[in-house]
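Let's practice the habit of predicting before peeking. Look at the sequence and jot down your guess about where helices and strands might fall. Then scroll down.
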Amino acid sequence: MERTVKKSLICTLAFLAAAPAISHAATSNKPINTVKVEYNDLDLSQPADAAKMLKRLDNAAMEACGADEGSLSDYKWAVHHSDCHATSLNRAVAALDAPRLTELYQARLERPGGEAYISVN
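Done guessing? Here is the structure:
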């Protein structure tokens, strides 16, 4: 009997990345933004699917950190280069524990200039 397992990741993405801020946020009543990212259609061991997943995670981090399709481009740029975005993406990639995805993400971190960010369209 074959079972279909629906895969998804709930990306818990905090606005503040600094340890004191996280400690404060944990004791406050402020909600932490979460964005559900589906990946049941992807095989994360395949390079093309890992790239698609990385883009989905990037979009989820943007959304969780306050940017959406209607945001001004300057605001998207600021969110994309924020600690919130970087921390969110790092945590999401680590949570998946998918070697091909991690390899792709690490390659992007090591690009000239050290930017850990994925291009925003």
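How did you do? The radius of gyration is 15 Å.
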